[in-house]
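Students often ask why inverse folding is considered easier than folding. One informal answer: many sequences map to the same fold, so there is more than one right answer. In these notes we will look at a single instance of the problem. The structure comes first.
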């Protein structure tokens, strides 16, 4: 009888041990996922911040130049629009957000038209390059006209 009790206790202990092991595995797995997610999020934030800083700096330079132009220089409407729309940066999502909100879509339409993260990043880079290139093309002749160093202007092929 004592032997049966010992076997029973061993089986109970074995089951308790297995539960503890499984619980530890699950907790470790969850902690690993959390740590990995935090690492990926931080890396993405750091990359986005660095890119956004470069673009914001270039926009700031062009905005400052626009305010420093002599009064006789009339800034074209396209350039004025770019400079006024970039209060929040050269954000392609900010630019298209009102269009997206104005169109109510069904869930199916929204899911089928959603862009991948890579597509959003690519669109943002293209938009930023186009914006800075447009500003550069406008300000470059003015710099030459007033005998200023064109190399001081932010350029997308060099500064972004």
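Output (designed amino acids):
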């Amino acid at each position: 009888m004592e032997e049966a009790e010992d076997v029973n206790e061993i089986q109970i202990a074995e089951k308790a041990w297995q539960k503890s092991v499984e619980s530890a595995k699950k907790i470790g797995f969850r902690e690993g996922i959390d740590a990995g997610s935090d690492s990926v999020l931080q890396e993405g934030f750091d990359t986005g911040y660095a890119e956004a800083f470069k673009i914001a700096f270039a926009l700031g330079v062009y905005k400052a130049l626009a305010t420093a132009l002599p009064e006789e220089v009339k800034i074209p409407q396209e350039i004025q629009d770019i400079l006024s729309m970039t209060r929040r940066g050269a954000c392609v999502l900010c630019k298209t957000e009102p269009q997206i909100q104005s169109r109510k879509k069904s869930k199916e339409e929204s899911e089928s038209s959603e862009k991948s993260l890579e597509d959003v990043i690519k669109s943002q880079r293209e938009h930023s390059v186009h914006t800075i290139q447009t500003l550069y093309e406008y300000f470059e002749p003015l710099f030459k006209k007033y005998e200023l160093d064109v190399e001081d202007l932010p350029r997308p092929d060099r500064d972004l």
